[in-house]
Write a structure and sequence with these properties.
The complex is a heterodimer of chains A (158) and B (788). With 158 residues, chain A is α+β, with helices and mostly antiparallel strands. In chain A, 31% of the residues lie in helices and 16% in strands. A five-stranded mixed β-sheet of chain A has the order 2-1-5-3-4, with helices on both faces. The longest helix of chain A has 14 residues. By secondary structure, chain B is α+β, with helices and mostly antiparallel strands. Chain B is built from 19 helices and 34 strands. In chain B, helix 6 crosses helix 7, helix 10 packs parallel to helix 18 and helix 14 runs parallel beside helix 15. Chain B is globular. The termini of chain B are far apart. The chains are: A alpha+beta (158), B alpha+beta (788). Chains A and B meet through helix 1, helix 2, helix 3 and helix 5 of A and helix 1 and helix 17 of B.
């Protein structure tokens, strides 16, 4: 067992964990934040995308112990005051959500992009979410939603 | 018909999908998100062999692993879970056990289950189980498996043929002897995996005091799961409550009850602890029923002018080691003539068992194979006759004045304007100009191809022993004047709640926000079918409409009695009922609900109290009983879509680029146009995956070669070309709302249209493209074989 101290959505967590524990299982089973989903555990589907040190990562590809002393942000951290982030609003307005399972990972991948590149082009957006699979929407409205945030000048928040 | 739903697009403010906010917040609750204190975790030991006898099973090491609470094999659950019989036909002779007995039939078949305090410990337990197999040669080729001398997938059966469908019109042989051309072809659809992004999951709690089970399952079919669970566990179904909370897509994969549900429920009772299980992607890709995988041999009698006089089809469907209802074979056999008026037809279809994962639906079942086959075949016939592919289709389409139309198999095409739809797609694509450009580009050495198709996608299947012909919804007006609705089943992303709220709000003068929808729980849902076969717009929404109308009539009757006005002179308006022409004479809904629930002495004489009704709607055009020629109608409504695709093929690499993708879709009346549009994009994307690279592959030993997302590829955002869509509305005459269902038609377009486009592009090289998906290595090989 190993000791882990990590900040998730601004809150500090200390836990004794197995070194083999994946970050996604730590977030879901230990911290009990279930907005981060599991789809493949080989880093292909992106349903488990979170921000680690401000960069989008697939949390099934990271051992929880690697994040010791660092900061994680999950979908639950995106609207801490209950007010939706412009990206979340845009996903609803553009009908970019169907079954919703890929949505948190998709939003976090987009959030990571817009933090770095607030003026992201359509190509930038496609590149940023190319590691996130959606089986429902055909991506059309997802790209539209992310792009609308850029166009509205709300990439950095409302 | 089209104006039966009174709301205007956007009349209730900006469009919002009902209840979607929890998804963007990460606050939804899928099965594995359900928090059950003190839960333990199950993991499955699965067969590593496609066909083998289990010589010995070593469980003791697993039983000694830290945290492991139980390790059970078939012999340990004999008194806990009853085996079930297969469906009709030869499979009815099979007794099927949730864990393999002495024989395994496919890689991924559950052999044992491990329960432990944590997920990782359960997996450790699985890894500690060893199995000694007596390997037998796997049966992987369905055509070889059909041979009388073939070894058997199930020793208990006489052959590997699990199902047969034969339908024949009179005069087939005469039509062939009198034909100008007889054209034959073999076409095949590859095996597909449904692959919703949420894999399957289930969890169960047993309450010893009441003897009741609560089972959470990421299923589409709560009622069927409950019924089969009860049978398997040997309890009455009212002791089993099944809850499908948020479900992350299905696409066919979550339609059927699976053994894991039986075992998890059994374990919850056995261990007196809540038990959870979450499927891994490898399990999903090897154990969840897989789709398509049919071989069609076609033979057409064709007149010199391109009119098809008769069609013979022999279908061989690879069922894998299926032991459940198999609807893909009849669905294919009934629709081999597609959108065409070919009244002379013979179909001989065989469902063949092999040592592969059991077969089932993947976004379209059987009909998808048939649509692909006939649409590729029309191009093949056109090519042989040197005709334009649009012209041959126009010559053979079911005429627009012939609906409702019965095909030679008895299937009913409810309504349609096929020539108009294809013409519209051709015009939208600029077909004539595209053909001119194609010739110019060929001169420059560019291999451009234009492909088209018009696919039909019959919806709302209903069959003897399986039901499916009706929808049901319970609706209650609450004392506050708001409404709670309880449909028979819930969505897996299709947006049912949005449509239900709109229909009810429209009937009762409310806004959709006044309506809350509760679904996915057998404790509160009326018994009914499930969200399969694109049935919700066809059967469920009319049932919602019926329920809302019943409620409306009752409210008007109460109001009319109290106000002493004929109910016919009353109308609903913003939470009240008002007299037409005398708006000061009104009752607020709250006043009416008070009478219905509290001051019942004020009700009209003889009227029951309460404002709670259940609405049903049964589609009227199912023909359940096959006639002496095998003809019947299993599907209520038939949406369709025309597609024109343009591709450029690079002959040196075998890669192709989609230059243009145009589609015109007709699913009758669209209840929520925004949802239809989003569904249609997703449906097309799934079809693109099918055309581009999705393929479940097995080697000669029956070992799956595509068991992770590294080798079973789903389309990413970069695989989706610009899609131009247009819609037509030809309402179904058989449903009160005119809707036909729109979830699957888009999927059928890309494999046919792109196949035709690629072959068209390769015309100068005389390359035939008959195998899917159209991967670059496959095309490259075909191009090089044609050149040598």
């Amino acid at each position: 067992m190993a000791n882990l101290a990590v900040t998730v959505n601004g809150r500090k967590y200390v836990a004794e964990i197995e070194p083999r524990l994946l970050l996604v299982h730590f977030l879901r089973d230990v911290v009990k934040l279930t907005g981060t989903h599991i789809g493949c555990v080989v880093g292909r589907c992106g349903a488990c995308t979170v921000l680690w040190k401000n960069k989008p990562v697939k949390s099934c590809m990271v051992l929880a112990i690697e994040t010791d002393g660092s900061e994680i942000m999950t979908i639950e951290g995106l609207s801490p005051n209950d007010r939706l982030h412009p990206l979340q609003e845009a996903f609803l307005a553009a009908d970019a959500v169907e079954c919703g399972y890929c949505t948190p990972g998709m939003v976090m991948a987009a959030y990571g992009l817009l933090q770095k590149n607030p003026a992201a082009s359509e190509d930038d957006i496609k590149r940023a979410i190319s590691g996130n699979l959606c089986r429902c929407t055909g991506y059309v409205n997802i790209v539209k939603a992310i792009r609308s945030v850029v166009v509205a000048g709300k990439s950095q928040g409302a | 018909m089209a104006d039966k739903i009174g709301y205007e697009r956007g009349s209730e403010g900006a469009y919002r999908r009902k209840g979607a906010e929890r998804f963007v917040r990460g606050a939804a609750s899928y099965v594995d998100d359900v928090q059950l204190p003190d839960a333990v975790y199950a993991a499955f030991v699965r067969s590593a062999a496609a066909r083998a006898k289990i010589k010995s099973l070593y469980l003791s090491a697993a039983r000694g692993c830290p945290g492991v609470l139980a390790v059970l094999a078939a012999s340990d659950i004999m008194d806990g879970i009853r085996p079930y019989r297969g469906p009709e036909g030869p499979l009815a002779d099979l007794l099927i056990h949730p864990l393999a007995q002495s024989t395994v039939h496919y890689v991924g078949e559950p052999v044992a289950v491990v329960v432990a305090e944590s997920r990782y410990q359960a997996q450790d337990g699985v890894d500690a189980v060893a199995i000694d197999y007596d390997l037998l040669p796997a049966i992987v080729d369905p055509e070889a498996a059909l041979h009388p001398d073939s070894p058997l997938v199930f020793d208990e059966l006489d052959s590997n043929v699990a199902q047969e469908v034969h339908i024949a019109s009179d005069g087939v042989d005469q039509a062939f002897s009198g034909a100008d051309h007889v054209i034959t072809e073999r076409l095949r659809t590859q095996r597909l995996a449904a692959s919703p992004i949420e894999p399957r999951a289930c969890a169960a709690v047993f309450d010893a005091a009441s003897g009741r089970y609560t089972v959470w399952s990421s299923t589409v079919t709560i009622h069927a799961v409950r019924q089969q669970l009860a049978e398997a566990l040997g309890v009455r179904e009212n002791r089993v409550r099944v809850i499908a909370p948020d479900v992350g897509g299905s696409f066919g994969g979550k339609v059927h009850p699976y053994p894991e549900e039986f075992l998890v429920a059994h374990l919850a009772k056995r261990l007196r602890r809540p038990v959870k299980w979450a499927e891994t992607r490898i399990e999903h890709l090897t154990n969840v029923r897989q789709g398509r995988d049919q071989i069609h041999y076609l033979q057409a009698a064709v007149r010199g002018d391109g009119r098809i006089l008769a069609l013979k089809s022999k279908i061989i469907a690879d069922f894998g080691a299926s032991t459940r209802f198999i609807n893909s074979l009849p669905a294919a056999a009934l629709y081999t003539t597609g959108a065409y008026d070919i009244q002379c037809q013979q179909v001989d279809a065989f469902g063949v068992l092999t040592n592969k994962t059991p077969q089932g639906p993947v976004r379209g079942i059987g009909k998808a194979d048939a649509a692909y086959v006939i649409e590729r075949f029309m191009d093949i016939v056109a090519r042989q006759l040197d005709m334009d592919p649009a012209e041959i289709r126009m010559k053979n389409f079911v005429p627009e004045d012939a609906f409702p139309y019965r095909t030679a198999t008895g299937s009913m095409l409810d309504s349609g304007r096929y020539p108009t739809c294809l013409r519209k797609a051709l015009d939208l694509a600029g077909y004539e100009e595209l053909r001119r450009q194609q010739l110019d580009l060929r001169k420059q050495g560019v291999l451009r191809g234009i492909g088209m198709c018009l696919v039909i996608e019959p919806t709302s299947a209903a069959r003897r022993g399986q039901g499916g012909a009706y929808g049901a919804c319970r609706v209650r007006m609450e004392p506050s004047g708001t409404v709670s609705a309880f449909p028979a089943y819930g969505p897996q992303g299709q947006g049912h709640h949005t449509a239900i709220a709109r229909i009810i709000a429209d009937r009762l003068g409310l806004v959709p926000d006044d309506v809350e929808v509760f679904s996915g729980d057998t404790a509160e849902a009326p018994y009914g079918a499930s969200a399969i076969s694109s049935r919700s717009a066809v059967t469920l929404m009319p049932a919602v409409h019926v329920a809302a109308t019943l409620l409306r009539e009752k409210i008007l009757r109460i109001a009319g009695h109290v106000l002493e006005i004929d109910p016919g002179d009353l109308r609903f308006e913003k939470g009240a009922v008002r007299a037409t022409g005398a708006p000061e004479r009104e009752l607020q809904l709250r006043q009416i609900t008070r009478i219905a629930y509290m001051d019942t002495y004020r009700l009209p004489p003889g009227l029951d109290p309460g404002l709670e009704v259940t609405g049903f709607f049964t589609v009227p055009n199912i023909i359940w009983e096959p006639d002496e020629k095998g003809r019947r109608n299993e599907f209520a409504a038939v949406p369709y879509a025309a597609t024109v695709a343009v591709v450029d093929v690079d002959a040196t690499t075998g890669r192709f680029r989609i230059v243009k993708y145009v589609t015109v879709h007709d699913c009758g009346t669209t209840l929520v146009p925004e949802i239809v549009e989003t569904q249609h994009y997703g449906s097309i994307a799934q079809g693109l995956g099918e055309a581009l690279f999705e393929e479940v592959r097995y080697d000669l030993d029956g070992q799956p070669l595509s068991s992770t997302f590294m080798d079973y590829l789903l389309p990413t955002v970069n695989d989706i070309p610009a899609i131009e869509t247009d819609h037509m509305v030809t309402p179904s005459p058989f449903t009160p709302l005119g809707a036909k269902g729109g979830g699957e038609t888009g999927t059928l377009g890309p494999p046919a249209a792109l196949g035709n486009a690629i072959e068209d592009a390769l015309t100068p090289l005389r390359v035939k493209v008959r195998e899917r998906p159209y991967t670059s290595d496959r095309l490259w090989k075909a191009i090089n074989e044609a050149a040598s």
